[in-house]
Design a protein that fits this description.
Elements (H helix, E strand, L loop, with lengths): L1 E5 L2 E6 L4 E5 L20 E5 L16 H14 L5 E6 L1 H12 L4 E7 L7 H33 L2 H6 L1 H12 L3 H12 L13 E6 L7 H10 L6 E6 L6 H4 L1 H14 L4
Parallel strand pairs: 3-4, 3-5, 5-6, 6-7, 7-8
Antiparallel strand pairs: 1-2, 2-4
């Protein structure tokens, strides 16, 4: 595995084979996809820490979904990735929808965990408030935000049975710098939806039945807007919240492995 920095963006590049590029969500980083790595054997896996997140928190300037999408394409260019399967979680899915619309020849398929096209208005307001708290209160604010998100975004079953999953998400959130997290919140709150009807590649949509960010009914509605896609599969995992790859590792590995195998020639 090689760890490199491209324009202050931390990137992990490992393995050989068809390329898979992974993009995390708000409060996440490249480690969000560590539970899925066994399903990506025989692939070259590129994992990006978006500007303002993880090991890329020192990236300067305003953050936006458009900047994130440009970042993903720039990393692919620098690494000579001309076609890849893309895997996203949460906010990363919005980024990848823009990439698929803007650079369709680059995107062989989309596997989206906890998918949404854009936050609804009420969620945008809550995200802005969360960002303001992180900005003004720093580590103490991030601690309160983390406790609230663990309660809201992780299923009751996961909280009761999988303490390691709970610890994983807690650590991912608590490692975010308050100001950098606030900038990321601003980017998500200002999201402009991609023209998803123009996406033509195969798409996998995976959510949990207790996912409050990407509830099943919203994901099914999203699938209907992807009428230009080569194929669309919707999977709803039982007793699962928003952190699907962490909460339901085996099921997510299986869905991703089968999806990549079915679209190996895409």
């Amino acid at each position: 595995m090689s760890f490199i920095t491209i324009d202050r963006i931390a990137v992990e590049d490992e393995g050989e084979g068809p390329a898979v590029v992974c993009v995390h969500g708000l409060g996440g980083d490249s480690n969000t996809f560590t539970p899925l790595m066994p399903a990506l054997a025989r692939h070259r896996v590129v994992r990006i820490d978006l500007p303002g997140s993880g090991r890329s928190q020192r990236a300067e300037g305003a953050l936006s979904i458009e900047r994130y999408a440009d970042c993903v394409q720039s990393v692919c260019t620098r690494l000579n990735v001309t076609r890849a399967h893309f895997v996203g979680h949460s906010m990363g899915n919005i980024v990848l929808q823009h990439v698929a619309v803007d650079a369709p020849k680059l995107v062989a398929s989309l596997a989206l965990f906890g998918p949404l096209i854009a936050p609804p208005d009420a969620a945008r307001s809550a995200i802005r408030a969360r960002g303001a708290k992180a900005r003004s209160e720093g580590a103490a604010g991030m601690h309160e935000i983390t406790l609230a998100l663990l309660d809201a975004s992780i299923s009751a079953d996961t909280r009761a049975r999988l303490p390691l999953a709970l610890a994983f998400v807690r650590e991912s959130l608590m490692r975010q710098d308050g100001e950098a997290y606030a900038r990321s919140c601003d980017a998500l709150a200002d999201t402009r939806a991609a023209a998803v009807e123009r996406i033509t590649c195969p798409v996998l949509l995976v959510t949990g039945d207790e996912d409050v960010v990407a509830p099943p009914q919203a994901v099914r509605a999203m699938s209907e807007k992807l009428h230009g896609a080569k194929s669309v599969r919707v999977v709803v995992l039982p007793r699962c919240g928003h952190w699907t790859p962490v909460e339901r590792v085996d099921e997510c590995q299986r869905e991703l492995r089968d999806f990549l195998a079915a679209n190996a020639r895409s």
